[in-house]
């Protein structure tokens, strides 16, 4: 996953704590830390957190795309990729492969202003992470070869194709940047850059970039977690102290822009199915005093049902399902963005007019002080949630140190946000929005230029042509470079593991209510937060096929008011508590979930009770939500990945099984749904007899049970749906869906495999780890690292009570479709034969150590409780599963592979460009592909 920005736009607010029931006193929020600077200029920040036996390491290089030269755009991001490949004292590819095998996770991210590298590992691998991370930082440049350079170009190209070229509205950022910022401005090009620039990159460019920006004096290192600060200081000096300082790098200065006139541009997007309007105003850089008021302005304009833009665009004019406005600040400049993805066929002139009317209403009505109070309460909760894991703390500390000059700048951000007044908001509105020039983009479906804003000029966009010959882009990483190793005083050999940390499952308490509802909880007092939910069996599984989507629509409607509160009043009541309440329909359950400050648990739970027991059945909101769902389903027709996922399920389960259909339903089924269908579903399926209550956080069992004792929810019998087990009727078939112009092909391969309640489920998932379990899996290592065909490749099986499919999937560059299929087919077919005793040991080590990170956040603790209730597990199930893992022998792995990952029983589905790839797919040797439309229905051949 690439990080385009590390922090949320709304991560900070003033924090309060209860000194006594009913009273509040101000308390500054801060993250405790210790900071020191090495002789080479590297700034180091340490944070102790002994709640879990894990450590997070984050290294932020103060170099993003804003340091690039015209003609070499995308280089900061490309260099990030190169940095993971090899270094002098670490084996090639170890970063991507070994860290997951140590039970850790790792990645990097590049944005306009910086590049970050990060890892989270069990504490026994702490020394190893310092070894691997410091070597990447200071000792990688000699290992780069021309072959490695060319291979990584293919990976980055695949990322761009997946995220930009093969995605609806993917070119919007490019169009906006070119027109908002003058030529040569550091933000006038995208972070990922252009393909011609990337292709032109040379080894000398890589070395020049490293020499200029990758010195210790241009970085911050943060280590957070279960550490001893005294020992850690010495280790940091050893591993990072000999890295060269590098040349002085001048800190970028603010470069705000002013538009002489408004610019309106349009683009006919061959992937888009819905028209989208964006309006972008130039504003201020990060940490600017006006940024905090602009953040609040964004929430006031569109962030609630009372917001003027929401009222006019969504409720009154019914032009779109939602509207968003927000401030986005970078180091040198900022933007205030209006974004509306309209309903199908909506003329964007009407959207622009509605925005203008909404702004007029904002000016005329002024600011409700209650709205300000609500926004600040919501931001307070976000503040705590934003630093709820050691990795998130590391991100906050490293970013604020490098860009704000103070690791604890979050304290100032909180105070400055809290200090925003109505006058401040109106001042920044008048200064940056009212009467100011902006860049406006109209992205419309191909052939629907009549929907663009009148007078818009066609935008210039570089579009890559699909090259049919894969051999023209085939590259390898070549031989390991020959070089003279950099001399160091400290031995940079791989260190040993430390003492193995022991898994500590949280203590779980449980109870039952008289109405039959189960109750499970985990008390955790690290932060003043509580997460809780009520989960009901059924969900999408209880939909009828002809009205698939009822559960989803009902889940949306339940938060739109109660019998005593309008939708706006309920939203405000939740917001004033700094809480969030959501209802979600999954495949097999509906979940009413909430998060809140611990002091507001009682009031938040009262609102949840009201939502469940007193639904409003608001016809106006129902009509809006139904139209919103139709718009969303239409939009999914523009996503090859969404199409592949939906059709694959249909092929797995068949037309007579509800899981063969998306939880969203289909355009046809949603049209069939009425309000009475939602009421019938509610009456038949909402009962404590099929419900469980889960809670984790800073609240005791007694406090929870006091609230639940007053929960007068009458129990009724619920008829649990059942379906015949689908027959494997499509085994060995290969299917193709034509998506004209696709720059990548989406591949799904799999078979219906196993239920989550099957006693062999865990063993099956362990057996899959070597094949597709993350970046260390064979699919990823072969298709991305070795071949450069894709940005990622994985395999998995969902844990559901119904039998779930085993899935191997990837999005590969279009002209690599056939070789990718051949590789995946061969790997799966030969997987059991190639599984070795060494693979058994690697799998055990990987899974056991990863479990040290299993319960860090409140969300993960809540997920643990879900597993207990859904699958009937004991509170100590993790220990049992670890025993299963450690007792597995080689023959057990082979048995699971042969039983549940049998290539001869699998189907193949490809969504790609038919004009260039259909004939190629025929060469796979599985016969002519069966052609399907985007809904999975056969086409006449």
TrEMBL record:
The keyword DNA repair does not apply. Residues 201-379, 673-846 form the Peptidase M16 C-terminal domain. Keywords: Hydrolase, Protease, Signal. Residues 44-168, 529-640 form the Peptidase M16 N-terminal domain. The keyword Hydrolase applies. GO terms for molecular function: metal ion binding; peptidase activity. Pfam families: Peptidase_M16, Peptidase_M16_C. Residues 1-20 form the signal peptide. It comes from the Bacteria. Gene3D superfamilies: Metalloenzyme, LuxS/M16 peptidase-like. GO terms for biological process: proteolysis. Belongs to the peptidase M16 family. PANTHER family: METALLOPROTEASE (PTHR11851), MITOCHONDRIAL-PROCESSING PEPTIDASE SUBUNIT ALPHA (PTHR11851:SF49). This is Zinc protease. It comes from Ekhidna lutea.
């Amino acid at each position: 996953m690439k990080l385009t920005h590390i922090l949320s736009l709304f991560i900070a607010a003033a924090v309060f704590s209860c000194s006594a029931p009913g009273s509040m006193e101000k308390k500054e929020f801060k993250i405790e830390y210790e900071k020191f600077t090495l002789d080479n200029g590297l700034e180091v920040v340490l944070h102790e957190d002994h709640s879990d036996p894990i450590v997070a390491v984050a290294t932020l290089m103060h170099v993003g795309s804003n340091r690039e030269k015209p003609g070499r755009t995308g280089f900061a991001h490309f260099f990030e990729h190169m940095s993971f490949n090899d270094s002098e004292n670490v084996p090639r590819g170890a970063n991507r492969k070994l860290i997951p095998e140590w039970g850790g996770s790792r990645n990097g991210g590049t944005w306009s202003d910086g590049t970050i590298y990060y890892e989270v590992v069990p504490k026994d691998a702490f020394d190893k992470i310092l070894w691997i991370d410091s070597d990447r930082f200071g000792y990688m440049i000699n290992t780069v070869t021309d072959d490695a350079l060319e291979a990584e170009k293919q990976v980055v190209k695949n990322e761009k194709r997946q995220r930009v070229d093969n995605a609806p509205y993917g070119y919007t950022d490019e169009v906006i940047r070119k027109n908002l910022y003058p030529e040569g401005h550091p933000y006038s090009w995208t972070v990922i850059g252009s393909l011609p620039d990337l292709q032109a990159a040379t080894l000398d460019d890589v070395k020049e970039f490293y020499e200029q920006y990758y010195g210790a004096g241009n970085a911050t290192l943060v280590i957070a977690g279960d550490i001893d600060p005294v020992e850690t200081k010495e280790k940091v000096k050893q591993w990072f102290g000999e890295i060269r300082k590098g040349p002085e790098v001048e800190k970028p200065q603010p470069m705000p822009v002013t538009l002489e006139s408004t610019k309106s541009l349009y683009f006919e997007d061959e992937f888009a199915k819905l028209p989208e309007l964006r309006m972008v105003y130039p504003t201020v850089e990060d940490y600017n005093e006006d940024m905090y008021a602009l953040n609040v302005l964004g929430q006031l304009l569109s962030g609630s049902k009372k917001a003027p833009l929401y009222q006019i665009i969504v409720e009154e004019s019914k032009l779109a399902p939602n509207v968003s406005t927000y401030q986005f600040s970078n180091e040198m400049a900022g933007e205030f963005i209006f974004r509306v993805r309209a309903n199908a066929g909506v003329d964007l002139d009407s959207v622009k007019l509605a925005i203008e009317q909404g702004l007029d209403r904002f000016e005329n009505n002024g600011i409700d002080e209650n709205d300000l109070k609500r926004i600040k309460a919501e931001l307070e909760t976000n503040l705590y949630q934003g630093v709820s894991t050691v990795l998130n703390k590391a991100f906050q500390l490293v970013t604020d140190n490098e860009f704000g000059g103070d690791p604890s700048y979050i304290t100032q951000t909180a105070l400055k946000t809290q200090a925003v007044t109505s006058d401040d908001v109106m001042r920044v509105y008048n200064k940056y929005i009212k009467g100011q020039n902006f860049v406006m983009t109209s992205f419309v479906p191909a052939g629907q230029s009549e929907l663009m804003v009148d007078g818009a000029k066609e935008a210039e966009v570089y579009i890559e042509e699909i090259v049919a010959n894969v051999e023209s882009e085939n590259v390898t990483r070549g031989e390991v470079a020959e070089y003279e190793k950099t001399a160091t005083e400290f031995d940079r050999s791989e260190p040993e593991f430390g003492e193995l940390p022991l898994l500590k499952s949280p203590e779980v308490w449980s109870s039952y209510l008289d109405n039959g509802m189960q109750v499970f909880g985990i008390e955790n007092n690290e932060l003043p937060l509580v997460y809780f939910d009520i989960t009901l069996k059924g969900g999408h599984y209880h939909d009828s096929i002809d009205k698939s989507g009822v559960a989803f629509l009902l889940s949306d409607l339940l938060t739109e008011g109660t019998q005593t509160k309008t939708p706006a009043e309920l939203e405000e009541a939740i917001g004033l508590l700094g809480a969030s309440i959501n209802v979600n329909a999954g495949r097999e359950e509906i979940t009413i979930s909430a998060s809140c400050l611990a002091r507001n648990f009682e009031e938040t739970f009262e609102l949840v009770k009201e939502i469940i027991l007193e639904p409003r059945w608001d016809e106006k909101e129902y009509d809006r939500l139904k139209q919103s769902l139709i718009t969303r389903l239409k939009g999914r027709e523009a996503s090859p990945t969404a199409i592949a996922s939906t059709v694959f399920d249909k092929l797995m389960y068949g037309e007579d099984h509800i899981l063969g259909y998306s939880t969203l339903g289909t355009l046809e089924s949603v049209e069939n749904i009425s309000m009475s269908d939602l009421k019938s579903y509610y009456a038949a399926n909402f009962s404590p007899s099929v419900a469980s209550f889960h809670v984790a956080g800073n609240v005791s069992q007694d406090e929870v049970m006091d609230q639940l004792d007053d929960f007068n929810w009458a129990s009724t019998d619920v008829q649990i749906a059942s379906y015949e087990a689908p027959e494997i009727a499509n085994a060995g078939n290969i299917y193709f869906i034509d998506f004209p112009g696709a720059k990548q092909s989406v591949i799904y391969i799999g078979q219906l495999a196993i239920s989550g309640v099957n006693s062999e489920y865990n063993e099956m998932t362990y057996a899959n780890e070597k094949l597709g379990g993350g970046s260390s899996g064979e699919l990823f290592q072969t298709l991305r690292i070795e071949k450069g065909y894709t940005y990622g490749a994985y395999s998995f099986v969902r844990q559901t009570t119904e039998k779930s499919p085993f899935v191997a999937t990837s999005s590969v560059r279009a002209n690599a479709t056939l070789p990718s299929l051949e590789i995946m087919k061969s790997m799966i077919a030969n997987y059991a034969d190639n599984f070795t005793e060494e693979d058994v040991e690697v799998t055990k080590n990987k899974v056991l150590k990863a479990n040290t990170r299993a319960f860090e956040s409140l969300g993960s603790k809540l997920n643990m409780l879900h597993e207990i209730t859904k699958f009937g597990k004991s509170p100590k199930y993790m220990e049992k599963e670890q025993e299963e893992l450690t007792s597995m022998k080689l023959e057990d792995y082979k048995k699971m592979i042969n039983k549940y990952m049998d290539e001869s029983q699998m189907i193949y589905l490809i969504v790609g460009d038919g004009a260039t790839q259909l004939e190629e797919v025929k060469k796979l040797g599985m016969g002519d592909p069966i052609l399907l439309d985007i809904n999975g229905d056969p086409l006449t051949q």
